[in-house]
């Protein structure tokens, strides 16, 4: 399949590097200020070297990538809230051209889900977004295969940064600020970690789950009740531990409600994953609980989910 | 979609009962000595009541179910080894008629995988068999979506009966025979438990995984190195426990080898699931390890996997 990639960060780069292994050609890639386009397939190594040395993937305009010949657009620009731009506009243009869209960007499907599905209904293209929830973990594909109406609730640990901080605090008895600084040193937390530690990122993933599971309404971040981990003292973790429990940032979608916040969970529970691991539990109507866990972030991990989505798209006519 | 169901045990019955929720019609169902057929869709409650009261689903010949009008055959007769009959014959007939086949029966894809895939290649019908490995857990669909060549190894706890026995022995310090009798009382183990406790069932699932993962050869049960749990003394579990470990019956497919046997695993490890839970770990080339766990057996659980497979089949032309 011919792929155009919007976004040349860790995810966009990994998709470009791995696409060839699955037999795909990358015909266009754009960063925020430039693009490289070749209808016969780009030389990815050369493009990424240029990005590293000159800070730009090419000499074309980013718009040229969106106008290029491709079968599926990979939308891997940073997640934005509210109008979810520029990601939403990229999705809109691709669907209006009857092209498929595979999203790593959470914005369009968390903040403007109804508009995205309406555009997809009028398009010969399909929209898939496995990579937006739980990285490499096959959450949305499982919900799709089971049928959303057979899933009665979803919950899990959906932010690796917050989980790393909480599990380190619990294991070492250290304070929040200390562990956060350590996480920043390790590259597990960003310089501004608020999106992760305040629960926004986990909430967006829960909103996407809620949109997929809901039959009759649309959710946005404004519908989620969100509390972060930044106010948890080590003493709370110590108290939990004395009772055989620990604290995790749990997101839950159940009964039409979306809630994200620190929760007490048994230390032996499936939800008490450690480090940056993510887990999603799906409660099913007829098959009990499914636990799906793995790496919830990272370039190759997220690219793996994107390529799995591409694998599920209908093949283009030869 | 119109479904024909071969087998009216727990799995076949559950498929029949749940198919309507997904909008499917069951046009035929067969047990070992009779069949009920209705091209407009059977009254499932009436058929299953008849099975309960008279021991037969209908008055037609089982052959009539295989000759009926349907889009997909659900093969849910008991797993047999060697020639995998009569299941293999059912698969063959359906594919020769260009119909889809969804298997719960492990025999045809464990013992005659090459023949099944060759038949499918010559057919307009597809073959799916998610229900044969790990019950409701989405193992084969995940491998399919990721691409088999990106999975470097698979291992897990694939037999709920053996796991129930081992985890009860470990938790209670009881002997094998005692716990097995308890499991039989609870309906977790069959009167003849050898298929489960000797590792054959787990090995068949590993053979199926090996067949799906292999690119260049076919595996059968004869290729698996299998050891059961029937010779494990409580003292071995006690020794393991003193070292923070426990024993689980682990099946593993890696480097072209299939091995099933009791293994020491850390008590906190993901593989140390308790009770009848199953878990599968997939080692991926680019996304680390995925853990997928849930209920590995049971009528509605297995039926859920079958219906998920049906959900992935191409829709018939209207």
Automatic annotation (TrEMBL), chains A, B:
Annotated active site: 205
The keyword NADP belongs to this UniProt entry's keyword annotation: yes
Record-linked Gene3D superfamilies: Dihydrodipicolinate Reductase, domain 2, NAD(P)-binding Rossmann-like Domain
InterPro entries noted in UniProt: Glu/Leu/Phe/Val/Trp_DH_C (IPR006096), HDH_cat (IPR001342), HDH_CS (IPR019811), HDH_short (IPR022697), NAD(P)-bd_dom_sf (IPR036291)
PANTHER family: HOMOSERINE DEHYDROGENASE
Binding residue positions for L-homoserine: 190
EC numbers for this chain: 1.1.1.3
A Pfam family it matches: ELFV_dehydrog
Domain Homoserine dehydrogenase catalytic: 138-310
Annotated positions binding NADPH: 106
SUPFAM superfamilies membership: Glyceraldehyde-3-phosphate dehydrogenase-like, C-terminal domain (SSF55347), NAD(P)-binding Rossmann-fold domains (SSF51735)
Name of this chain's protein: homoserine dehydrogenase
Organism of derivation: Halapricum desulfuricans
